[in-house]
Write a structure and sequence with these properties.
The protein is 9% helix and 27% strand. It is mainly beta and 255 residues long. Strands 3-11-10-5-6 form a 5-stranded mixed β-sheet, with no helix packed on it. Strand 7 and strand 8 form a beta hairpin. The protein is globular and about 50 Å long.
Length: 255
């Protein structure tokens, strides 16, 4: 009886801990597999990682904050043209808790960053050396900046777990890493915002010229700051809330 109860408790705990992961990426209409830590397959363009139960990163200064726990580069990449369109497909192995790609309780902003690969090689690099430039962000879409509001993660879920962006045309052809990140604010009032970053390798194609981003961007540990009121201490559960939300992190490229 006790063993059965323990097993049931473990299963429920595992289900409660499930969150989400980047399952696929569509580049200019071609869909590529990303990565699933529960069923590792290194044939896709997504970086591998070992996050348990699809869980988050919570320490912005930890090396794992770059691309999720124990992340390592993919040996593959996907091609996309300058100015091309990227769709990020999120999902979860717990369809009851996280329908349509993301848990309804995990409201917050969505960020996309890009980093040039040192020496042009994205398959064999040290993740801490990547310098990230923000190319897209989405925050509060409508309503109050609380649980009652409609956030970027709500829009993602209503779109079947998909978030779509464009690669700035000004970025030069070459090899890059994309970092897509969902931030959940449900525990931010306790000082524990949850970050869900994942990375994929891309090759931008097209006419030569443009910004190769070699002199741009910051390390992942400098993307956010401890104490930012948009992350640390932010109370999503207030009855009264402002109608705006200051999206954290650096400015979007070109803005």
């Amino acid at each position: 009886m006790l063993r059965s109860l323990a097993l049931t408790t473990a299963v429920l705990a595992s289900q409660a801990a499930a969150h989400g992961y980047l399952n696929a990426v569509t580049l200019d209409g071609t869909t590529h597999h990303a990565f699933n830590a529960a069923r590792p397959d290194h044939s896709g363009i997504g970086w591998s990682y070992t996050a348990v139960d699809e869980g988050p990163e919570t320490d912005i200064y930890d090396p794992d904050f770059v691309c999720r726990q124990n992340a390592a580069p993919s040996p593959h990449h996907g091609d996309i043209s300058r100015g091309g369109t990227v769709s990020f497909h999120w999902t979860s192995d717990d369809k009851d808790l996280n329908p349509y790609g993301w848990a309804p309780s995990h409201k917050g902003p969505i960020m996309t960053y890009i980093a040039a690969c040192p020496h042009g090689d994205c398959t064999n690099l040290h993740k801490s050396g990547l310098r990230w430039t923000k190319i897209d962000h989405k925050g509060l879409v409508a309503g109050p900046a609380s649980n009652s509001g409609y956030w970027a993660t709500d829009a993602l879920r209503d779109n079947g777990g998909v978030d779509t962006i464009s690669i700035p045309y000004a970025i030069a052809p070459g090899n890059y890493v994309l970092r897509h990140e969902l931030i959940a604010l449900h525990k931010a009032h306790e000082g524990v915002p949850e970050f869900y970053p994942q990375c994929v390798n891309i090759r931008i194609t097209g006419h030569p010229g443009g910004d190769d981003l070699r002199a741009a961007g910051v390390p992942a540990r400098d993307l956010y700051r401890q104490g930012d009121p948009a992350l640390y201490g932010y109370n999503l559960h207030r009855d009264e809330a402002e109608s705006y939300y200051n999206i954290p992190g650096p400015a979007v490229y070109g803005q």
